Each structure stands twice: as structure tokens, then as C-alpha cells.
Amino acid sequence: MAQDEIHVQDTTELLAGNAAVMRKALVDALSLPAFILFFTMMGFGSLARSAGFDAEMAAVASLLIWGLPGQLAMVELTRTGQGLVAIVFACSLANARFLPMVVSFMPTLSRERASMPRMLLDAQLLSINSWAMCMREFPQVAGAFRHRYYVTFACSILLAAVTGTLLGYHSAVLLPAALVLGLIFVSPLFFALVLSAVPGRAERISMLLGCATIPLAHHFWPAVDLLITGLVGGSLGFALGNFPGKLLDRFSNKQGGAR
Amino acid sequence: MQLDSLWVIVLACGAATFVWRALGVLVARRIDANGAFFRWITCVSYAMVAGLIFRMIMLPESDLAGVSLPVRSAAVAIAFGAYFLFKRRLVAGVLAGGLSLSALVAWLG
């Protein structure tokens, strides 16, 4: 998508100041992601009940696992009566994306001196929502205030998620099917729109290649489709985005010794 | 299943997810944020997240699978159209996409 205007934006006026950054984080959270998560987690809450979990368990699952694909794997495998090892393994695999996400996210917080426990807490708060939103907004936020933006945003949506889980568990409200489909659809759509504004050529090529890889990976290796997609799409995107010249040289100049 | 063992499942799943996060922190503490490894793993994250989003919309296992691919694609196109029309307002894109999917489903049955 052509949106190069975005990084031509005036970079001298970065957002700074505790109050201003927290206000922006709250507005960003409440203007969509908190609601989307609220409804998504209502769905999770009612699924958890149908699998035999009680309300506290469902809420603690949202709080501690804090990654919907893993939560859904847990509920689904429990419902079908799988053993503990199989359930935990499936949940873990469904959330393995947190490894590269945390590695790529931590340095952008500009907190090199943070202690280990604090970093672990930051990592526990991370979800695809905050990851995508921060990658989009951080270029406009001063380094010293990024952590505050992140924690405010992440805690707001976590609160909405846990509340939604409990409400979904306890309410037997049946929404019209067409509306439910709209709500399910809105969650990935939101991420797609958020990430369309992410700067960086290598990052954008990686996203396009990720979309191109997933159908094949999903067809042939459904259990590890995202890992394969990340490694293949990301590595190619990294190479194409960072060294297009060098790669072309290597293809066109097989005798070597050019440099 | 017994409630105690359900608690074990929830806590073990939380711990199993936390392992990935903690590994991420351990790696993040050791790498140079300007180095090639960091830029590579950032690209890997982007590809994974984009793949996940693409899978959720185009290859869904949820109730969304009952909605035909042309309808889902049309709703995505409408969402991006509204997003750019309204100066990159996420609310505009999400509302347009969600409502048009609901409307198309209700209309086409």
C-alpha cells in the first residue's frame, strides 16, 4: 500500500509528557481495541464455560495466557477430552509467536537499563494488539515516554479482555448471527489496518511475503504454519528489504570477486 | 473433568506461554538493537503476525468460515477504502468493514 506520506511527517514534534502520552494511550485503547477485545473475549468466556471451566478459570486464562490462539487451543482440546500434556503443548505452540514478538518489541521501548523482573512483566503484558499499535505509534512518541504509552495501553485492553471474559461467561445473550460474524471479522481487520501504516521497507515486504506463505504452510504443515511463515517470509523480507543490491549482484555476477 | 485438574490446565498453559515471553526477554537482553539479528527477527515477527491475520480472514476456522470468500474479500476492500477515505481513521475502516460484512451476510442469507 502506498502510504509513504506517513514517514515524511514532521518528526521534530514527537509526543512527550506523562499526561499527554497516557491520554493518547487511553484514547487509542478505548477508541477500538478495548471494545474489540471485550467482545472477542466474551466469545472466549462462553466457549470456556461450554468446555467445563468455571468463571475464575476463564478470567485467569485470559490474564495469564493473554493470547487468544493459545486460549482457544486450550479450551478446544479440553472440551474434546485430550490429556494435560497435549493441551499444554498445543497452547504453547499456538502462542510461540511471542518469542520473536518480544525480541523485536523490547528494544523499541528504549529501556536498556530495566531490570529483569520488570522486563518479564512488560513481556507478560504484550499481546498482538499492543505490539501492532506500538509499532504503528512509537515513531511518533518520544523514546522516554514509550514505556508509559505501552503500559497504559496494554493494561487498558487487558482489563477490557478480562471483563469481557467474565461477562461472556455469565451472560447467555444471543446476538443475531450476522452481527456475531461482523464482530469476529473486525478483530483481524483491525490488525490489518493498524499494520498498514507501519514504516520500513523490509517490514512491509515481510508482511506481504507472510501473507503469500501462510496458505501453503497452512495446507502442508498446519501445526507449525505460523513458525514456517515467519521464518520464510521474514527471512526473505529481511534480505530483500535490506540488501536488494547485494542479492542482485550475487545473481548476476556468479564469478564473484566483484568487491 | 475435575475442577482441580482444570486449574492445573489453566496454570500450565499460562506458564507454557510465559516461557516464550521469557525466552524473548533473554534474547532481547543479549542483542544489539541496531544489529542485523534484531532487524531479521523483527521481519520474522511481521511475517508471522501478517500470516496470522491473513489466516484469520482468508482461511478461518471460526464461524467466519461459513461466509463466502468473495463476501469476506469485499468487506476487507470496503474497510480499506473507508480507512483511506477518512484520513486513516481506524474506527472508520473497522466500522465500514464489520457493518458491510454483517449487511452482506444478512442480505445474502
Tally the beta strands of chain B.
Answer: 0
Helix content of chain B: over 70%
Parts with pLDDT < 50 across at least 5 consecutive residues of chain A: 1-10, 254-259
General shape of chain A: globular
Which protein chains are joined by the largest interface, and how many residues does each one contribute? A-B, 100 and 76 residues
Over the alpha carbons, how many angstroms does the gyration radius of chain A reach?
21 Å
The fraction of residues assigned to DSSP E strands of chain B is under 5%
Task: Explain the overall architecture.
The complex is a heterodimer of chains A (259) and B (109). Chain A is an all-alpha fold and 259 residues long. Chain A contains 14 helices and no strands. Chain A is globular, with a radius of gyration of 21 Å. Mean pLDDT of chain A is 88; it is low at 1-10 and 254-259. Chain B has helices at residues 3-30, 36-58, 69-85, 90-108. Chain B starts with a helix and ends with a helix. Chain B has four helices and no strands. With 109 residues, chain B is mainly alpha-helical. Chains A and B meet through helix 4, helix 5, helix 6, helix 7 and helix 8 of A and helix 1, helix 2, helix 3 and helix 4 of B.
